[in-house]
Specification:
The structure is a homodimer of 453-residue chains.
Chain A lengths: L2 H9 L6 H12 L5 H14 L3 H12 L15 E5 L8 H10 L4 E5 L9 H5 L11 H11 L1 E5 L6 H13 L5 H13 L5 E8 L8 H17 L4 E7 L7 E3 L1 H11 L8 H17 L6 H14 L1 H12 L18 E6 L4 E6 L1 H13 L13 E4 L6 E2 L4 E7 L6 H10 E4 L10 E5 L1 H7 L3 H4 L1
Parallel strand pairs in A: 1-4, 2-3, 4-5
Antiparallel strand pairs in A: 5-13, 6-9, 7-11, 8-10, 8-12, 9-11
Helix pairs in contact in A: 1-3, 2-4, 2-8, 3-8, 4-9, 4-10, 5-12, 5-14, 9-10, 10-17, 12-13, 15-16
Chain lengths: 453, 453
């Protein structure tokens, strides 16, 4: 088999066989195929898409390029939640302990800040002692003990994705729904799951701005999950403003702990609701609830009973973290400087460019300009107003946190551009939960693959 | 400037500036841009095409990546002819000496056998002593002395094309009209020409099977030539059967010498006619004839007067070749074995798969299976029948020449498949010269570049 023949076949709109896809993926993982040939194939895939069979074959070949985790908590079904990324998105810290408290195993492998979005691992790093670099064996032990763990990618999992993602990043082939699907799903399927819920975000703060694109990607991922015998559901949610009250690193852990402890706040009901919806699906897919609705109710019960915060504390301890932070989390928020960002006029918060808000958070010090940089655990933003709310001129729209006062200028400029207050009340605030894609309706949402896959 | 931004721009249908194109081409020539990034860009160009401005910029950037020849024969205008390649295509050996005899300078840089087509340099190598590896200085001296020279590519000319062509060959991006145009035209423009005639072949023995594709490529090349201030004309010709009587190496030189000596034969009137048409354009573009028609008549006069064979002999001598072969060329054809290929039925030669005929010639030993192999100078084919001719069962359709009898089996099989004799006379023999593309009509033939460029 020669890569050139497979490149030409895909280029001309043909469908590669499973063996041919496997040849390319294995060749990538083992550096047997030169990167220029892989790059040409990836660009041809960008234009031609992948058929359902090709996408399934690629996802499985990528999954099988490294270790695949298997269940270690006997009798406990394994579920996970994955989000396509947003601003203030901290549902992982709620849904993982809720699912663990429901008796499920949650082998959650997460990532770092990317672009304008925060990274789950960067947030967890703000907890003193918490280790995200567990080996597969350590991960299995934590799951056996406490049900959930949240860790970083290990070298041995899905090496094909590391090679292909780095190559896509350099060759302009990141933005292909088929390749995004294969990348996400291969990593999730390598966790050896019995069920997966996907939070596919669209809107100004998401990577996919357009809802139709989100629906397409969601449908691809749901179908790919089912083809790999892992029941998968995608919830399409709006990312047009930060989720909850806080965006940053430690502040997001703090907000999650407060919610896990039952402290509710009008400005993070969206976060609570989305977490319960996602956890409801996890419980249903994990077979501890007959329906998603029953799962959601049970999740709410586990949150209110304190069972979820117990699971969270156990997970922190099992991963070396200081569970003492749970007692008075706000006390652990010690930014070097803080500054309020004020409304310049009275009216209603009409729209936010949520990506710019995300960049403001990154520039406050929560993210990196270059890979490997150290992030500021206390940098971030607290929102005092959300879409549709009435504000008066001079009232704080948010509070910025950073290491020093010198860091406020750029974020302030970004926020000035991002948050729009108008005189009239706007009726066009997008619903948080927009649509649910299941195996039953995924096919109808999947667009013509040959032109858009 | 970053390659990734340019890849994404082209991928999304944008138009690169001249500086951006120059950055990529220079980066390729000087190995400053990794091949995987170039490959992704080339595949994006395959799908998106190049605008006229991009194509002009790319062609000039490639031309200027190395030395550009300048006129050394003062007062003599420089013209050349380039063919997109076919079977039995030996017009170079006629048009170069005709144009030189007309007082023009012909700095012809040619190539080797490629795929099923023969190579001008391989044919010239069958002349004892003839050197095709002249330096630019030697080339200039030969042109000054005798008006024409036919040589191979030197390292210093168009290095960007060497890098990009090798990369295209490995990454499935050869078959892009825009990239083919830039490759051909950058090399021709590096010859420092005042005029260029292109023989764009279509049909079963050409690389472009389809006439519309040929017309599109011809139009791109004509417009690119004019944009670079080199008046360019393309003649679209049919390559549905070998041109002339012979296909191979020495046999093509022999046939050319016979025609240059005025020996005509019914089976190579096509070769003579096409050579005069092409030479007519060279003379017209080189300003020694007011019209193409006048140029064609003058070319025929130079052929018949013996002036052209004198130029050919002078070129052979100037390049170290044994001009003695001109006296009795047939005597120098010494194949190890010969075998006739007979008509299996009576009727009319209806069609030929001319690419298969070309492969038969290659497999007889005229071509290589791997780069660098030595070719057999005496391998080849003599045609005894051409399209539309009546033949009787058992009559020879052609004679095969090879080193030994053992080499005939595969070519014979290819010819059996390739040449179709039917009972009824077929009226669908394509005209040799199908269309002429000049600056005046090129624009109307150029298809929508964004979808096909």
């Amino acid at each position: 088999m020669h890569a050139i023949d497979l490149i030409r076949k895909k280029r001309d709109g043909g469908e590669l066989t499973g063996d041919e896809i496997g040849f390319l993926v294995t060749g990538a993982a083992q550096s047997l195929i030169p990167e220029e040939e892989l790059a040409a194939w990836l660009m041809a895939v960008f234009f031609r898409g992948l058929s359902a069979a090709e996408l399934n074959a690629m996802t499985l070949a990528m999954r099988d390029s490294g270790d695949v985790l298997s269940s270690h908590r006997s009798g406990h079904r394994r579920v996970d939640k994955h989000s396509t990324g947003g601003v203030g998105d901290k549902t992982s810290f709620l849904v993982a302990p809720i699912a663990a408290a429901a008796g499920l195993a949650v082998p959650m492998i997460s990532g770092r800040a990317l672009g304008h979005t925060g990274g789950t691992l960067d947030k967890l790093d703000s907890i003193h002692g918490y280790r995200t670099d567990l080996s597969s064996q350590e991960m299995a032990r934590v799951i056996d003990e406490v049900g959930a763990c949240i860790v970083g990618q290990t070298e041995s999992l899905v090496p094909a994705d590391r090679v292909l993602y780095a190559l896509r990043d350099r060759t302009g082939t990141v933005e292909s729904p088929a390749l995004i699907c294969a990348s996400i799903m291969s990593k999730k399927l390598a966790e050896g799951l019995d069920g997966l819920v996907l939070d596919v975000k669209t809107g100004s703060g998401a990577f996919l701005k357009n809802r139709a694109d989100g629906l397409h990607l969601a449908s691809l991922m749901v179908q790919t999950g089912h083809a790999a015998s892992t029941p998968t559901v995608a919830v399409l949610t709006s990312m047009d403003q930060p989720l909850g009250r806080f965006a940053g690193n430690w502040v997001e852990i703090q907000e999650s702990i407060e919610l896990l402890k039952g402290e509710r706040h009008a400005l993070n009901e969206d976060l609570r609701e989305l977490s319960l919806v996602l956890a409801g699906w996890m419980l249903h897919l994990g077979d501890v609830a007959q329906t998603q609705d029953e799962g959601r109710n049970r999740a709410e019960g586990l949150l209110e009973s304190g069972a979820a915060i117990e699971s969270f504390a156990a997970m922190l301890r099992a991963q070396g973290g200081d569970a003492g932070v749970i007692d008075e989390p706000a006390r652990h928020h010690t930014p070097g400087a803080r500054k309020e960002f004020l409304a310049s006029r009275s009216g209603f918060v009409a729209t936010m460019n949520c990506e710019q808000v995300g960049w403001a958070v990154q520039r406050l010090g929560a993210g990196r300009k270059r890979a490997g940089e150290i992030v500021d655990p206390h940098a971030g933003l607290e929102m005092h107003a959300k879409l549709g709310m009435r504000v008066d001129a001079g009232q704080p729209l948010c509070t910025m946190f950073a290491k020093s006062d010198t860091l406020f200028a750029e974020p302030e400029e970004l926020l000035t551009q991002a948050i729009v207050v108008i005189a009239e009340h706007s009726a066009t605030i997008p619903a948080l939960i927009q649509q649910t894609v299941t195996a039953d309706n995924a096919r109808q949402f999947r667009q013509n693959q040959n032109s858009t896959g």
